[in-house]
Structure formats: C-alpha cells, structure tokens
Amino acid sequence: MPGATAAAAAAAGRPASLIRAVGLRKTYGEVEAVRGIDLDVRSGEAFGFLGPNGAGKSSTMRMIAAVSPPSGGTLEILGLDPAVDGPRIRARLGVCPQEDTLDTELTVRDNLVVYGRYFGLPRAETRARADELLGFFQLGEKAGAKVDDLSGGMKRRLTMARSLINRPDLLLLDEPTTGLDPQARHTLWDRLFRLKQEGVTLVLTTHYMDEAEQLCDRLVVIDGGRIVAEGSPLELIRRHSTREVTELRFGVGQHEELGERVSHLAERVEVLPDRLLLYTADGEETLARVTQLGLVPAAALVRRSTLEDVFLHLTGRTLVE
User: Fold this and answer.
1) Within a domain: residue 319?
2) Domain that residue 38 falls in
3) In CA terms, which of 19, 47, 149, 296 is 20 to 30 Å from 87?
4) What is the three-class DSSP state of 37?
5) In CATH, what number is assigned to the domain containing residue 282?
6) Which of 198, 213, 232 is the last residue of a domain?
C-alpha cells in the first residue's frame, strides 16, 4: 500500500521530527510574510495550517517544500538542511498543489508512470506503483481515460496519487479539497485518513474547518505571519471557546441593541448583522434565560462550539483579500 514505505522508514529510524523550525522568517522586499514561527512536525501525524488569506501559510509551505529559501531562523526537513540538501529533500517529498497540474495529453495511468520516471524509478516498478495507486484511489476503471474525461473529484484523486508515486516520507497538501462537492470531499478524506493510518505523515493547509477537525492531529493558526494558537482541534476549542454556542436571530437592525441586553448571560457575545452568538457552557440554559428576559428570537439554535468559532475569534471576521 502507499504508506508501507513510510511505516518501514519510521521503524528504520526516520527522524522523530520530520519538520523542525525555530524563528523561521520569510520576507519579500519590505513585506515580512512569515515572522519568526516555531514548528515541530512529528513522524506519522497529520499537521494542519489554518489562517486567513495572506497569513503566511503558502510561504511557509514553500519553505517546507524546499523551493523557497528562508530569510531567517533555522529549518530542518527530514533531518536535512534545505539550503544545502534541497534535491535530496524534494526527492523524499510528495507535493499535492492546490491547482491540478495534470498532463491532459496523457491517460490517467500514464500521468503516474511519466511522473514516476522523473524520480528515476525503473519502468516496471513505476508501472506497478501506478496500478497500486489507481486501485487505492478508486481510479482503476479510468486508467485508460484522458484527464479531461474525469470529474473534478477524480482529478484531485489523481493529483494526490501522483504525489505518492515516489512513496514519500512526507506528503504536503495545499487546500486538498477546494472546489469539490461534499461527496468528493468525503471520498478524499477517506483516502487521506487511510494514508495516515498507514504511517504517511501529512502536512496540509485548508480553509475548511470541518476538514481540519476531521484530519488533523495537531494544527497551528497563523495570522499576520505569526502563530497565534497551536494544539489539537479539541484542545483549541477548549482553550479558546466555550462548550456550546447559542445562536439567536431577531429582526433586522436589532442585534446591536439586544447584544448589550444579553451580554451578562454568556462568557462572550458576538454581534453579527443577522444573528447573535452567545458563547456559554450550557446553551439550553442560556436560551431559557434569554426568554426569561422577555426576548423572543425569530429563530434559535444551540450547538457545540467548533474550530470555526476558534478560528474567527483568533483571526477576526473581517474579509482579507
């Protein structure tokens, strides 16, 4: 299976930390995109980067991929220095970019075979690996089809299969399910979960909070080039939010005034144009206390706090272009 080599490498003494960064910085002229971050990604885990646009996620991933040199700090990938061992590092990485870069002139199978040859793999071995990956990603029936005949979800699975042809020690995924419908996303999540079970170390960026909660053992929230929070999804929710959230919808233009009236009922109240969010330990009790004040919302919802609540609390709700 695709993760067999990764698991064997771990048993053979692969570094416990596959990515180690201390004070990592990246500047572009006067712009400081990454401002002194520390990272320690361990073998066999799924590690995520969350952050708004321009937060520094892509710049960090490019440094990890050994295609963009750091401007400061120290960075070690797979126990190697990317400044001097870039080719050796890249040979052991799998990179799944946000945009599909498949060769539309080739068949599905040949996209894997040709890419495998770039790593110097023997032709017979490359073909065997290609067939194995087509089976793993449920693309066997499309092996002889052209790329243009594939759905969006199939193209993403093929791109991911291609990134595994060299049996990498570390798989980098940039927004792996962007633009996919829910069914295609869940299919890809299932494949990624299986890869993690087989020992493949995953590092991903995503703007889907449910994706981060599903896949990531640990993650960091980056904002303004700095890490503002780190931990497992559950740890971040416990640390930066409450157990439950009560959502209240009133008439247009009423939420600002009513937010002040209910502010004492919750640990934190967020006033949005279309609703109030009351962060509390017991959402049903909070809702009951709202009605005791004589307030009757047009709609009310009690839900558990999510990673999205944490993300928006830490990075703000203002759209970043």
Assistant:
1) no
2) 4-232
3) 47
4) strand
5) 3.30.70
6) 232
Distance, in Å, from the CA atom of 173 to the CA atom of 193, rounded to the nearest integer, reads 13
3, pLDDT greater than 70: no
Answer whether residue 170 shows pLDDT above 90: yes
Question: What is the domain count for the chain?
Answer: 2
- Whether residue 222 sits in one domain with residue 136: yes
Strands 93-96 and 170-174: parallel
Q: What is the CATH number of the domain that holds 122?
A: 3.40.50.300
Collapsed DSSP state (helix, strand, coil) of residue 50: strand
Cβ neighbours of residue 220 closer than 8 Å, sequence gap 6 or more: 37, 39, 48, 49, 50, 227, 229, 230
Q: Is residue 249's pLDDT more than 60?
A: yes
Q: Rounded to whole angstroms, how far apart are CA atoms 146 and 191?
A: 22
| Residue 309 domain flag | no
pLDDT score of 155 more than 70: yes
